[in-house]
């Protein structure tokens, strides 16, 4: 039986996938590529256009960052930190989240911000040896991410 402190199962996991509108916009590159190759042949143009659209959409989805809390570690994209170095997380939505992503964004903070995602969690970094003041992370479920960080902190 695992104790909660050593349990490495994800307590929270979210992929910050691009919005449907962004994927549709990216897919429009396919028909543009098709137009370039129409003089060579319509079949070749159609195949190349479909391939470009599919590859771009797959690439955008595969490259999206993941936010997770596993054990005592917060991961946001490629960055990670032990939650013992973090203060109390603050879950924000609406105007408060817009302020945290804009004028309230700490200059010496670490940010993982994605357009089209309203919520944000701001977590102060209390490690005196770390030059980063706070972590600001976009999330669709800020309350759940903040709760997962608090649970991991014990």
What does this entry look like structurally?
There is one protein chain. The chain is of the alpha+beta class. The chain folds into 2 domains: 48 residues; 87 residues, no CATH class. It is 38% helix and 23% strand. The strands form 2 sheets. Strands 1-2-3-4 form a 4-stranded antiparallel sheet, with helices on one face. A hairpin with a 2-residue loop joins β2 and β3. α2 packs antiparallel against α3. The chain is elongated, with a radius of gyration of 20 Å. It starts with 9 loop residues before the first strand and ends with a helix.
Helices and strands in order:
Elements: E1 10-15, H1 20-27, H2 29-37, H3 42-62, E2 66-70, E3 73-76, E4 79-82, E5 90-92, H4 94-101, E6 110-112, E7 120-124, E8 134-138, H5 142-153
Parallel strand pairs: 6-8
Antiparallel strand pairs: 1-2, 2-3, 3-4, 5-7, 7-8
Helix pairs in contact: 1-3, 2-3
Unreliable residue stretches: none
- Whole-number mean pLDDT: 90
Main sheet: strands, sense, barrel:
4 strands, antiparallel
| Estimated helix fraction | 25-40%
How many domains make up the 3D coordinates? Answer: 2
Order of helices and strands: EHHHEEEEHEEEH
Strand content: 15-25%
Total helix count?
Answer: 5
Q: Spatial order of the strands in the main sheet?
A: 1-2-3-4
Radius of gyration: 20 Å
Structural class: alpha+beta
Question: First CA to last CA: what distance?
Answer: 18 Å
Q: What's the count of strands?
A: 8
Taken from the alpha-carbon principal axes, the silhouette is: elongated
